[in-house]
Design brief:
By secondary structure, the protein is an alpha/beta fold. The protein is built from twelve helices and ten strands. Strands 1, 2, 3, 4, 5, 6, 7, 8, 9 and 10 form a ten-stranded mixed beta sheet that branches. The radius of gyration is 20 Å and the shape is globular. The two termini are 41 Å apart. The model has no long low-confidence stretch (mean pLDDT 91).
């Protein structure tokens, strides 16, 4: 008999944190699950830890593969999973013991296609509760498209969610990072209702080596390409709900974010300048008449970026000197 829920976990160089993650899966109060562990050619002891858990509990199944990236690993898991519902977990994170049971209860009781809970963001010496909503909230597809673009109630990462299998009708985009932004937009056409709970049932570990904290040029360009795709897909899917103003705000927020990260973190001045100029090229000439509706701060920064990239870089590097909140967080990242 097939399990009710399939949990898919891509695994790569997480020997230090993997056991806690897998123990939190094994200790779930809901027991009718399988866990597909995809060892993505990990060079440390992560693959052996996966095998150990599979020997001790037959609900864990292991795939060993050559390194191909997180997207390819998730796709391999999707090919073999058998559950009616699918959940993704990152291999350095930790689940509350009622994580799966609560997600399933929400999904079934609200007759939804996807359920989502909130999370606790975990640093080395402190945690931050991030309640995505104040109370249980249902979204129809129109509002879902708006909230994905706003990026607050519905972050694009796949963990902290439970999907009906029918929602996932296409693979993850391979060969890029920030593929979750790209892929969730494609899946959204199959989501007619989503339910979100404020309960924090997922520990999200902040690591220096995670994609979010690595500012390679390719990473930031991939991020922006994913944002452009997301805007195009959701605007076409829900044209009556997603206005040009909303699409422009999402796109140019992504443009400014990508350019800001590059301006602050790329050491070579020439590489820094070329990377920031490429951001403008990727964005293209989309919604030029809507820049005045972005709000004063984003309007100023977007115009400065378009007209004088060098001045934009100087401003972002200066502002970074006084970003004490980020400096505090960065000082407490896990290795």
């Amino acid at each position: 008999m097939n399990p009710e829920i399939s949990v898919i976990i891509p695994v790569y160089k997480v020997e230090k944190y993997l056991k806690k993650c897998l123990e939190s899966v094994r200790n779930q109060t809901f027991t009718d699950w399988e866990c597909i562990l995809v060892d993505d050619g990990s060079p440390d002891g992560s693959g052996s830890i996966c095998d150990e858990f599979a020997r001790e509990d037959s609900r864990f199944r292991v795939i060993h593969r050559q390194n191909g990236g997180q997207s390819a690993a998730r796709n391999d898991g999707l090919k073999v999973c058998r559950g009616k519902y699918i959940s993704f977990v990152d291999s350095d994170d930790v689940l509350y013991e009622n994580y799966l049971s609560r997600l399933l209860e929400l999904l079934v009781s609200h007759d939804a296609d996807v359920s989502q809970i909130s999370m606790s963001i975990m640093f080395t010496t402190f945690k931050r509760q991030k309640h995505l909503v104040g109370s249980i909230t249902e979204l129809d597809r129109g509002r879902l498209a708006k909230e994905i673009l706003r990026g607050k109630l519905v972050p694009s990462y796949p963990w902290n969610k439970l999907f009906k299998r029918e929602v996932i009708d296409s693979p993850y985009k391979e060969g890029m990072v920030y593929e979750d932004i790209y892929t969730l937009a494609d899946w959204s056409k199959n989501i007619h209702k989503m339910v979100i709970s404020p309960e924090t049932l997922y520990y999200y570990r902040q690591r220096r080596s995670s994609t979010m904290h690595i500012d390679k040029v390719k990473n930031r360009h991939d991020y922006l390409k994913a944002i452009v795709h997301q805007v195009d897909v959701l605007k076409n899917m829900e044209p009556e709900t997603v206005s040009d103003d909303m699409a422009a705000k999402c796109l140019w927020k992504g443009v400014i974010h990508a350019a800001k990260k590059m301006a602050r973190n790329i050491k070579s001045p020439q590489e820094r300048y070329e990377a920031v100029c490429k951001v403008v090229e990727i964005a293209g000439n989309k919604y030029p008449g809507k820049l005045s509706n972005l709000g004063l701060k984003k309007w100023f920064r977007s115009n400065l970026l378009l007209k004088n990239p060098a001045a934009f870089i100087r401003l972002m590097r200066f502002v970074n000197l006084f970003d004490f909140h980020k400096q505090h967080s960065d000082a407490h990242l896990f290795d």
